[in-house]
Write a structure and sequence with these properties.
Order of helices and strands: HEHEHEEHEHHHEE
Distance between the termini: 34 Å
Strand order of the largest sheet: 3-2-1-4-5-7-6
Radius of gyration: 17 Å
Structural class: alpha/beta
Length: about 220
Amino acid sequence: MTTEITSKPAEYEYRYQDSTLAHTYSYLTVPLLSMLAEKAKSGARVLDLGCGNGSLSHVIAQQGYEVIGVEESASGIAIASQNFPGCQFIQASIYDSPKAELLNAFDIVIAVEVIEHLFYPKGLVKLARQCLKPGGHLIITTAYHGYFKNFILALSGKMDSHFSVLWDGGHIKFFSVKTLTELLETEGYTEIQFKFAGRLPYLWKSMLCCASVAEK
């Protein structure tokens, strides 16, 4: 018996209100742009999976990249298309089969603070691989979790608030360096590298992971 991966019902769509950058970008934007610059020159094609309201896609496009954003939320796509005409936006689920024009078409695929919200995170890394050119790179950012950080959370009595089950549309997958590496290796990615952002060492807010697909 196989499990069919489908989009979530419309009534559970995340609804965007405006075109402002999310608070996480205050500490993610600089290291993300640095990682992009290390892997691709200006003019490279970037696919932004789960682009939300398009605000980060716009910031990346301002650095000289050609950016296409994919987002499931109808309100996110509407806001992005209206406010950021320098980028192209496509309404689709990460679980959908990619459009033909997206296959093997990008130097970089990014997914910023997306994978922790997915029931099937393997779907994201599979889609990214289909969309990357040979020798391309996937950049994922997600909340950082490690033994020391979780120990400090437990001691401080903040485990319930940190792993809150009361946030509709919140985090449902909690990755460590080890588990994210295992996921990427399972799908054939190589040259996996990590950087970290926000807060003190080993209490980081997020980790940035870059992985490569082989040249053909």
